[in-house]
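USER: If only I could read backbone structure tokens as easily as an amino acid sequence. It would mean a lot if you studied the pair and described how this chain folds. Here is the record:
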Amino acid sequence: MTIDLTRLDSLTQDELWDEQAATTYDTPGEGMSSPEVLDPTVDRLVGLAAGGPALELAVGTGRVAIPLARRGVPVTGIEASRPMLDQLAQTEGSDAVTAVHGDMATTRVDGEFSLVYLVFNTIANLLTQEAQVECFRNAAAHLSPGGRFVIELWVPDLRGVSPTAPAQVFAVEDGYVGLDAIDTATQRLMSHHVRFDPKARGPERREARIGFTPHRYVWPSELDLMARLAGMELESRHADWAGAPFTSQSGSHVSVYRLP
């Protein structure tokens, strides 16, 4: 798919997360799907669910929902991208997850949940503060009294951003380079994903596939205020799913909000 940079904000979730993105999203046993990443995530969510049902906002291909369901937690998922839902339906174990097509900020499903969760920076896919606030309100509306809303999100590092250096490289891996172009006035960020075959030789080595994903970054304190607007309070914040202390040097956080 060819993306016109002038209309990235107006692209639908089906266009941003199309069939190609859905079929290449999972990395079984590696990266975000490695046991080192996934096991602590699922362990923590099982504990936070406290024996009740869970709702995943932006369930995607079921990376977290399926192993969580295997641990005995009933899971419902909301997902805006139909290609991602199609990929979820083809994944072993997906029959244990109830998947609903819809927007994580507005779509309601039946029932109450002891846990609502939103992982892997996905709240930043909502591109306005208003939409992010509505996401918190939607989460709170699905929670039973005493229920928890969990967000995993990166912490923006703006120390290297300036008018003369408006972009940051966030990943350099074999066959992949990622960089973020950042607008500090609007808290908007455009991730550029450059993928290529590092083993290619000759003219084809110069060919690369470039993808773009728009985000609105959110500070932890801003999230806390959104939670209060939705009637929730911060219960805990750690640097990762294993419970490491959150400090000024942390590059991400797992924040748990609780409905009274």
Q: What stands out?
A: Confidence is low (pLDDT under 50) at residues 1-7. The domain at 5-154+218-258 is CATH 3.40.50.150 (Rossmann fold). The first strand starts at residue 54 and ends at 57. Residues 240 and 253 are 6 Å apart (CA to CA).
